[in-house]
Amino acid sequence: MKRNTGQDRSITQHWRPATQAVRGGTRRSEFGETSEAIFLTSGYAYDCAGDAAARFAGEQSGMTYSRLQNPTVEMLEQRIALLEGAEACRATASGMSAMTAALLCQLEQGDHVVAGRALFGSCRWLTDTLLPKFGIQTTIVDARDAQAFADATNDRTKLWFFETPANPTMDIVDLKAVCALARQCGVRTVVDNAFATPALQRPMDYGADIVAYSATKMMDGQGRVLAGAVCGTEDFILNELLPFTRNTGPTLSAFNAWVVLKGLETLDLRIRRQSENALEVGRFLEARVPRINHPGLPSHPQHALAASQMVMTGPIFSFEVDGGRAQAHALLDSLGLIDISNNIGDSRSLMTHPASTTHYGVAEEKRIEMGVTEGLLRLNVGLEDPADLIDDLDQALRKIGL
Fewer CB atoms < 10 Å away: N or C end of the chain? Predict the structure, then answer.
């Protein structure tokens, strides 16, 4: 294999995940650079007018415009597809642009969607507010009950949309059961896998059709850039998703793609260490707070299911205090090391109050339905020494009487 050309997928798809995360999709120029190049260009030149016409007609391979193709972005897409075990991937400007595109590219007026109740706040806005504006009906179900998806399905149902683990309640969806039922019902599944990434969970291994990501989170991993990705079959990506993204323009910048490529090189190392740290911190909190939602702990009602479909349970979990928003905010204000931030996936530990931040735009009755109470706090455990995190939480809990 020549070092200055694109990779042979028949070879790279057999690499193990750790190798794919570092080398998958790499394309080298004539300069032989070891680190992926950043192609900061909006357009491309052609040797002749006939070449331009042939590329736009799909008769010649090559780049035409960076809203459609960019060498750096394509390297990221190929790497994520390899990690996911997908035929193809399309990168987008943010996680929410990925979720929006994954849904709207395949839906039209009169269609019906079944969605899990526990979703990121903006995803619930998509299902509850945006889709109805286009004449698309959504039925919300408890995604922990696989049969609930089938029971809510009718002859207009086009897809099932859910997140696992769910943000911020940490509900776990039985991927194998739900995806098998979807196939029986003749509908597609769209899975938000941002909390786990393909390093910890590959939904397509359990039958999922489409997997969407906020690559802003663990894939970047250091709180630097926004990015999203959608994985699926080559037919879906090229013939359904690409026409939508090329004409609506949620384009990922080459620089952001390069940053995420660098993040993927250490994804496996970071997410495993952060998962270990989160389990240690979770064990401490379990003895101090009224309720904790951590699928890595035996106390979680879906602990066995999480263990069966995830390599580890990730760096993020949530817990509750009984004093509502006032006590939750007091705890946040008492932290000295852990930052108050609504982001996740960062190498720094971050905590937020979802009811007043990430799920602020969700109506109160829907927040209650989702399990997002006024006393709920979500914690992203980073790469700090877990003993220091425990010390910080301990002093903050003592200040609020816990």
Answer: N
Q: What is the DSSP string of 355-376?
A: GGTTTTTS-HHHHHHHT--TTE
For 128-142, letters b (16+ CB in 10 Å) and e give beebeeeebebbbbe
Q: What is the model's pTM?
A: 0.95
Beta carbons of 376 and 320 less than 8 angstroms apart: yes
Determine whether 50 is exposed, middle or buried from the number of CB atoms within 10 Å of its CB (0-12, 13-18, 19+): exposed
Average pLDDT over the chain, rounded to an integer? 95
Whole-angstrom distance, CA of residue 124 vs CA of residue 116: 9
CB-CB contact of 381 with 281 (8 Å): yes
Place of tokens 């979802």: 354
Mean pLDDT value across residues 45-62: 95
Which residue intervals of 152-266 are DSSP H helices? 175-185, 197-200, 234-236, 242-248, 254-265
Name the class of domain 36-265: alpha beta
CA–CA separation, 217 and 318 (whole Å): 17
Q: How many other CB atoms sit within 10 Å of the CB of residue 381?
A: 27
Question: Mean pLDDT across the stretch 152-179?
Answer: 98
Distance of alpha carbon 215 from alpha carbon 238, whole angstroms: 20
Domain ranges of the chain: 36-265, 268-399
| DSSP for 77-113, written as a single string | HHHHHHHHT-SEEEEESSHHHHHHHHHHTT--TT-EE
List of residues 6+ apart from 201 with CB closer than 8 A = 164, 175, 193, 309, 310, 311
CB 142 within 8 A of CB 148: yes
Indicate if the pLDDT at residue 323 is higher than 70: yes
Q: Out of 1.10.645.10, 3.90.1150.10, 2.170.120.30, 3.40.50.300, which CATH number does the structure's domain 268-399 have?
A: 3.90.1150.10
Q: What is the mean pLDDT of residues 73-83?
A: 97
| 226 closest CA partner among 211, 215, 210 | 215
Place of tokens 């042979």: 8
pLDDT digits (tens, 9 = 90+) for 86-133: 999 999 999 999 999 999 999 999 999 999 999 999 999 999 999 999
Closest CA to 289 of 323, 314, 313: 323
Alpha helices in 108-174 (DSSP H): 121-125, 131-133, 146-151
Same fold, 36-265 and 268-399: no
Classify 260 as helix, strand or coil: helix
